[in-house]
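In response to reviewer comment 3 from the previous cycle, which asked for concrete evidence that the modeling workflow produces usable outputs, we include below a single protein chain processed end to end. The sequence was submitted unchanged, and the resulting structure tokens are shown without manual editing.
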Amino acid sequence: MQFSNPDDNIREFGVKPEQKIAIFGSGSGGHTLAAARAMNGTGTIYGIDSRGQMVEKLKKEASDRHHMNVRVVGGDVERMGGTGITPLSTDAVIVPDTLFSANDKAGVFKEADRILSYGGRLLVIDWIASFGGTGPQPEHVFSEQEALELGKKIGFVYDRRFPAGNYHYALIFHKPTPDEKSIRN
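The workflow returned the following structure tokens.
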């Protein structure tokens, strides 16, 4: 069985040089470092995690790999303003394996909405099930359908899904532009 591959996910999502990207729940840095490789030293990648140990580990890893465009910060992705990122300032937000453990799942989507520019894109990757100790406990799984419904409820437009290995789903949304909002209403 194939695990989710950050480089494949970043490529499928379409990360491009010069973008400003936030990774919510960056952990040890799989998606943060994959984005840095894809952007080839350009743009800015914010790796955000609430666990100090992970923040320090990723800071060291990014430095060791000379990814000068990576900014690793401690923050609360479940709280409005908890990332410390300026509103409407990012091109993309990636939420890898974070929703299953979030207490306020809507708060994660709301903070993404706050920092994304109009037309900005959101990638949600999470576990499709519990796999007997490999993934989250069964009661913590946040299904693809639940993520899709919550994203739409917060105001995102669903674009498409893609397979992210045998254990994960991946959903791409975008933040509607003011013109899109007026057409939809």
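The first strand starts at residue 20 and ends at 24. We consider this sufficient to address the reviewer's concern, and the full set will be provided in the supplementary archive.
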